[in-house]
Amino acid sequence: MTTKERTVAVLGAGTMGSGIATVTGRAGHRTLIHDLDGERVARGVDTVRGFLAKSVKLGKLTAEEGEAAAARIEGTTDLKDLANADVVIEAIIEDLDAKRTLFGELDGIVGKNTLFHTNTSTLSVTGIAAGSSLPERVVGTHYCNPAPLMKLVEVADGRHTADWAHQATIDFLASVGKTTVVTKDRPGFIVNRFLIPWENSCIDALERGLGTKESIDSAVTGALGHPMGAFKLLDVVGLDIHQQVATRLYEQLRDPKFFPPPMVDRMVAAGDLGRKTGRGFYTYDDTRLFGS
Question: Which residues are catalytic?
Fold first, then answer.
């Protein structure tokens, strides 16, 4: 796969989907954002274009580059609109049956050489690939969050992933400016094996009164060198997503350090999910996932 323009379909207009669409559109690829709900699609497209506009304002893109990237972003609720996709990137809810079903439906729509990427980091790539009649073209590609800002993508082959699909995936990710780390098809891959327990520890420290959210985030960025504090990151990811990922990993690994602390359940129950709802650990006037 070369760096020429490709048609990329991103399935899911939420946090990860809109972030990944920002990456592919900015890199020069025509990008279709698909979701079942038209309002979610519109919100995802708005999030991408808002991030691009902010990049222009900050001088990271020229006005012409920003306008060109924004023009590459389209939205749809019809899977048939993805027929010409060269790469399909699935970023929907972490549900094995839903992902399998979606890939099975796409088998009858896209071409046989279309790459299928799943952004999972808690479910088996092999298990997801079983939903496709061509499991050899399915590759796990876990974009670190927030996807437009973080360079790393974890690549995990399923049991039947073909060598051509693996190499085409590495080439595609290079074309969108990403650095890749190859890992095994295991729960959490590398990043979430470390990240989820660490985030849980930060939440537990806050709940125990060891520090405020501001002081803990300052310690993380100032002393540990992280680009973003734990609570600001959790607000971008979404407390509901953290809860789902942490719970999935706990169910598979049965290690208590993956189980989300009680504060997470209370915040999710209250609807305090992070930036997308205007309130999480912090409060936000701009609810776009990558707003200021």
Answer: 121, 142, 154, 192
